[in-house]
Automatic annotation (TrEMBL):
Matches recorded under Gene3D superfamilies: P-loop containing nucleotide triphosphate hydrolases
The organism of origin for this protein: Niveispirillum cyanobacteriorum
TM stretches of this protein: none
Keyword terms of this UniProt record: ATP-binding, Nucleotide-binding, Transport
Domain of life per record: Bacteria
UniProt cross-references to InterPro entries, sorted A to Z: AAA+_ATPase, ABC_transporter-like_ATP-bd, ABC_transporter_ATP-binding, P-loop_NTPase
Lineage: Bacteria, Pseudomonadati, Pseudomonadota, Alphaproteobacteria, Rhodospirillales
Name the UniProt record assigns to this protein: ABC transporter
Amino acid sequence: TTTSPALEIRGLRKSYGEKEAVKGIDLTIQPGEFYGLLGPNGAGKTTTLKMVVGLLTPTSGNISVFGVDNQRDPVAAKRQTAWLPDEPMLYDKLTPLEYLEFVAGLWGIDARTAASRADELLTRLELHEHRNERCEGFSRGMKQKAALAGALIHDPRLLILDEPLTGLDAAIARQVKDLLAERARAGCTIILTTHIMEVAERLVDRIGIIQHGQLLAEGTLAELRQKHGRDGASLEEL
Ligand code: ATP
């Protein structure tokens, strides 16, 4: 519903055998928020996001996406959500346009809507002139842009990205950041993980710090620096 949070996580836990990767996370993100998850490698960020997008079943706890419990109604929750994994895979033999048409088909989007959304996304990401070239020859950045376009083709209300800017050259990182900021202004809720301080500083509204499977702190970067920056674990080390 319109008054529900975009994402509500309660008592979330996940164990891989003996290893407890996520140890009781509570997190609420409001519609339109741009939220950054920070934390060292192995902290549990990817595991948490995989549960949000329904790739992993929680050991315990609940996740709702716009008021829909994603275990009670996984299809409805997924329809609202997009997931861009760390180092996304593309079908190298497809062109960006074919890839977008393929993904749109999986979502059941009609051909006309798919064509117009693909056109808009490819233009917006400066991939339009490459739309009929196979992805196999693309740089990492161009592949990342094609994957991002694929994540956006069903017009998700909640966009989840794992390290979306890592390894991109400055020009492409700029294009991706601009597109994300534009989507956020248009009301899309965005959650990303990042190690890049400049992203945390300029792009996101609020940050959550995950360490050892728990949410250690939340706030704006300025608030977190004030509370935690001087003593203990430095934010810059995350
Ligand atoms: P990174 O930035 O390195 O991806 P992360 O914060 O996303 O780190 P996770 O990938 O969620 O952390 O990993 C949390 C813990 O769970 C780590 O100790 C990791 O080794 C373990 N883990 C993750 N996936 C699996 C799996 N499929 N099977 C077993 N253990 C796993």
